[in-house]
From TrEMBL:
Membrane topology, as annotated: Multi-pass membrane protein
Protein keywords: Membrane, Transmembrane, Transmembrane helix
GO cellular component: membrane
Record GO biological process: transmembrane transport
Skewed-composition ranges (Polar residues): 398-414
Localization per Swiss-Prot or TrEMBL: Membrane
Acidic residues compositional bias, start-end: 381-397
UniProt name for this protein: AI-2E family transporter
Any Pfam family the entry gives: AI-2E_transport
Family: Belongs to the autoinducer-2 exporter (AI-2E) (TC 2.A.86) family.
Chief subcellular location: membrane
Renumbered residue ranges of the record's region Disordered: 351-414
Keyword Nucleotide-binding assigned: no
Length: 414
């Protein structure tokens, strides 16, 4: 039987082999990224921040501001965001470390009370009692102090992020033309990348706005309960709002423990109640309405992505869990029309995910391309398309300057 006479399925590799090779390739890539997490995570963080500010750069370009100046302004804004984030984190940890010694006696008394309570209810394990009896404030300070003294680690992380921001800014000045070319070659990939950029931008903006709201309300509640260091706990609540699922718990434990040590279990209980009510109402009911389906994944997917990306990217994976999941989804699911059924399993609203797979291919490409280029401050899609086409035409004219000369020389001859 000749090759032309063979059945079409005979020349195809076995489906199981393709799946096995795909899984093996993904596993190898993830292990590779895990080994380079000190580089991959800061670079991806810089990319996320630049995606957020890119609409401003597009708006400046529309105002006839030179692209280099627009990119420079965007870089400065990203650097303010990055250093502000790490600065607030360092300040919160420093204030907490300075506070611990002043509550040394109360901490010891609280742990002694806990030990007595465990003995009263029948917990008499000698190992447990030994651990409680060996507790002292110095051991707690020794455990927290390395967070501040490891200057080289923080400096290396910030250096990588800053360098990545500059390189992303350089590439951003030509992203319009690249996306238009990608639209002609791989329209589904252009649509998926556009959806990723739009979803990441909305995620960071909404998380920031609602994080500020939650932080302000937490500060007010803690002031009413009379818990020390209310501004530190407000900053902590704002920062942990970026961590999905467990960020609320991380932001709750320190002020609740301080309230327990400072004023007793009644104050700690009120802190838990206040945080729980505010978190449920704002983050579970109101915030998803503004986030929409651009970041809408099921709670299980969100939690598993948190665990997975922390393992792959380190502690920065807690902040980048949802953006990294959106990128993986854009490349493996949204870019392949045959794999879009996976959205039904991942999306928080399966009816919306199912309907999105039935849309005509042109509409989501156009909309996603507009999101990728960053339609700034209410600019319509038609205006954005005209601007992109005009910029592409200008670049074409610069690359082919001899075309007009040929037409001018041929004109008199006719």
């Amino acid at each position: 039987m000749t090759r032309e006479q063979r059945p079409w399925h005979a020349s195809r590799p076995a489906r199981a082999l393709v799946i096995a090779l795909t899984i093996a390739g993904l596993a190898y890539a993830l292990m590779f990224f895990k080994g380079l997490q000190d580089i991959v995570a800061p670079v991806f963080l810089a990319l996320n921040f630049y995606i957020v500010v890119y609409p401003l750069q597009k708006y400046l370009t529309k105002l006839k501001v030179p692209r280099a100046i627009g990119a420079t302004i965007s870089v400065l804004l990203v650097l303010v965001m990055i250093f502000g984030f790490f600065g607030l984190t360092a300040w919160s940890v420093a204030e907490l470390v300075l506070l611990i010694p002043s509550y040394g006696e109360q901490l010891v008394a609280t742990y002694q009370s806990a030990l007595s309570f465990l003995s009263d209810i029948g917990v008499t394990s000698s190992v447990l009692q030994q651990q409680f009896q060996q507790f002292n404030v110095r051991s707690l300070i020794d455990a927290v102090y390395p967070l501040l003294t490891n200057v080289s680690l923080v400096a290396g992380l910030l250096t990588t992020v800053v360098m990545a921001v500059f390189f992303v800014a350089m590439d951003s000045m030509g992203i319009d033309r690249r996306m238009l070319m990608l639209l002609d070659v791989k329209p589904s990939l252009a649509a998926s990348l556009g959806g990723f950029a739009s979803g990441v931008r909305r995620y960071w903006v909404v998380a920031t706005v609602f994080g500020l709201i939650v932080a302000v309300l937490d500060v007010i509640a803690l002031a009413i309960i009379d818990v020390p260091l209310i501004w530190v706990w407000g900053v902590l609540a704002f920062l942990t709002n970026y961590i999905p699922n467990i960020g609320f718990v991380i932001g709750l434990i320190p002020p609740a423990l301080l309230a327990l040590v400072d004023s007793g279990w009644q104050s700690a209980l009120w802190v838990v109640i206040a945080y729980s009510v505010l978190n449920f109402v704002i983050q579970s009911i109101i915030q998803p309405k503004f986030t929409g389906e651009s970041v809408g994944v099921t709670p299980l997917v969100s939690f598993l992505s948190l665990l997975f990306w922390v393992w792959v990217l380190g502690w920065l994976g807690a902040l980048l869990a949802l953006p990294a999941t959106l990128l993986l989804k854009a490349l493996l699911v949204d870019a392949d029309p045959k794999a879009k059924w996976v959205n039904i399993l991942l999306a928080s609203d399966p009816t919306t995910a199912n309907s999105s797979t039935e849309e005509p291919p042109v509409s989501p490409v156009t909309e996603s391309l507009g999101d990728t280029l960053g339609s700034p401050l209410g600019m319509s899609d038609s205006e954005e398309s005209e601007e992109s086409a005009a910029s592409a035409a200008d670049e074409d004219s610069l690359t082919t300057p001899h075309s007009e000369a040929e037409q001018d020389t041929s004109g008199p001859k006719n």
